[in-house]
Amino acid sequence: MRSPLTETSNLLQPHQPAPADYYQNNLQHAFEFVLSRYADMLCAAHSHSLSQFLAASADAQRLLARLLIRKGPYFLRTSLHYAEVAELDAAVSELHQRGLISLNPGAADRLMALYTKSELCECFNVPTSIRKSTKSLIGEYVLSRYADEQIAKRLAALRPWIRLRAQRYWQLTQLLFFGNANQNWSTFVRKDLGQIRYEALPLTQPQYNDVRSLNAYLLGQNLHGLCYRLDEYPQLASALYEALENSLTPETPEDRLQRCALLLGQWAERNSKFDLALCVYELTDKPPARERRARILRRLKYPEAAELLRQEMLSAPLSAKEQVFAERFGRRGAGFQPKVTELRINAPYESIEEYALTTLIADGGWGIHCENTLFKSLTGLLYWPVIFADVEDAFTNPFQSAPHDLTSEDFCFRRRALLQQHEQWLQDDFVLAEFLQATYDAKIGTANRLVNWSLFETIPIAQWLEALPIGAIRRLCYFLIRNLADYRSGFPDLFVCYGSNNYEFVEVKGPNDQLQPQQRAWFKVLEGLALPARILKLRL
Q1: Residue 61 and residue 28 in contact, taking contact as beta carbons nearer than 8 Å
Q2: Residues ≥6 apart with Cβ < 8 Å to 385
Q3: Same domain, 479 and 370
Q4: Which residues share a beta bridge with 499?
Q5: DSSP secondary structure string, 269-312?
Q6: Cα-based torsion angle of the residue sequence 371, 375, 376, 378 in order, rounded to the nearest 10 degrees
């Protein structure tokens, strides 16, 4: 199955209305895609809702498409006038008959949000003494005195409304189509405005092979959201721990669940709930869980247990950051020591990075604060054919910016033959430089999780190729494509070019800043690759 992106569509023009069938066609593509791949995993009501949309008239489809890209579930009837919907009353009636919208109320607090403060006061005879209060307090007053159905009935008499039914089905459909919770229907608009492109690749199979894997993801998504509400509702902590304890098993190694464990553990630490933090961190080995356990054990005066855990990390580190931590924990000055120089601050500054850069190039040259974007972007360009190779299970959704396994340990192993062939072809410096430029020209604006296109708007690719020796680009990209899981962050802040083949990477630290383990790991790599790098420590 090929991505629906390969089908002909009406492209949008800036500041021009979308074609009449634009939003309708987008949802038709999405719903057909989801039904073709996940029909056996959807509940009957969910499948029925999608089928009802696909069987509806053009006007009804166009109206529902508009509702789905708006914030719901309630909509004022007066806000439903769209040029592409010829017979609005008939469209509303059809959606109601098909069970896709409702005229019956749900939660009244969300309905009241559609109405003005003065409308609420008049509709519910709010006392004069309360009318000067905030809309939120007036809403609380109304909710305390009227049932939801009474509120809905009064507001409908004032200005009629409709409610989108089964919103959770539409949200799940969106997730199944895009494959993640970070994209929504506006992604179509960005693509068709030409703001971003996507590689059109064969989509080999569904992202979720069974209901259990889908439910594990949905559970992780739900718990992840709750973790960010712990400060507001601290009583959630015990329930979250219980849910994670029951869900985090070798059979369900859902990454989002493990990140939830880290979030809950960090919250417990911040709130001095150290026993809970230890229990939570023991549910996962995802870094920095073992590091946090060791720190807590040391804090609670269990040095032997902390040292035993440090030895475990030292003998079998799960990440570069964990290895650096294990080498240095409780041993100040141990481990790799990068080069450090000092710079005295003698003028006002907005940021230490800008101050350092201005000082470094005062006598000539140029530089940029690019941190992790530089070599991730160069790696994304240099290994483009490998990243977007047609590998089983790698691409399952039409708007992917990277294969699912990009940061997994198996990424390079599964593509080892292609990787070897590609790198052999790029052994010649001229060929490598030409390939980078040609890939940039051909793919500019195409979504690639590693590439930050704005970097090359600031500094053109040709200028990077002049400033950086080809051998340096080759060595760093060769390393990074094989170590993305560990080294996506921590690269030095600044790139500074003083002239041809005269450059350096600089990490800027303020008077009270310390080098983080991931940054220390990168400096060790840069020294091993014989690339110039140092820490610039600013002093007052």
Answers
A1: yes
A2: 418, 422
A3: yes
A4: 502
A5: HHTT-HHHHHHHHTT---TTHHHHHHHHHHHTT-HHHHHHHHHH
A6: 140
Q: Are residues 393 and 360 in the same domain?
A: yes
- Could you give the number of structural domains in the chain? 3
pLDDT band at 6 (very low <50, low <70, confident <90, very high): very low
256's tokens: 């989002």
520 near 338, Cβ under 8 Å? yes
Question: Domain range spanning residue 102?
Answer: 4-115+159-192
For residue 340, what are the β-bridge partners? 535
Residues 236 and 173 in one domain: no
CB atoms within 10 A of CB 308: 12
Give the containing element (helix H, strand E) for 155: helix 148-158
Q: Which residue type occupies 132? A: K
Tokens of 162: 């409709």
Torsions phi, psi of 532, nearest 5?
-70, 125
CA distance 537 to 514: 9
CA–CA separation, 404 and 411 (whole Å) = 9
Q: Do both 307 and 345 map to the same domain?
A: no
What is the Cα–Cα distance from 90 to 489, expressed in whole angstroms?
55
> What is the CB neighbour count within 10 angstroms for residue 445?
11
Position 120 in a domain? no
| Residue 44 sits in the same domain as residue 175 | yes
Same-domain pairing of 438 and 527: yes
Helices H / strands E in the chain, number of each: 29, 8
Whichever domain contains 310, its CATH number is 1.25.40
Check: CB of residue 123 under 8 Å from CB of residue 155: yes
- pLDDT tens track for 123-178: 999 998 899 899 999 999 999 999 999 999 999 999 999 999 989 999 999 999 99
* Listed residues 272, 298, 328: the one ending a domain: 328
Q: Please answer whether residues 453 and 509 qualify as being in contact, where contact means their C-beta atoms are separated by less than 8 angstroms.
A: no
The pTM (predicted TM-score) of the whole model is: 0.85
CA-based Rg of the chain, rounded to a whole angstrom?
Answer: 28
Looking at the fold, whether 494 and 531 belong to one and the same domain comes out as: yes
The DSSP symbol for 197 reads B
What separation in angstroms does the CA of 482 have from each of 59, 161, 475, 478, 479? 51, 55, 11, 7, 6
Same domain, 305 and 399: no
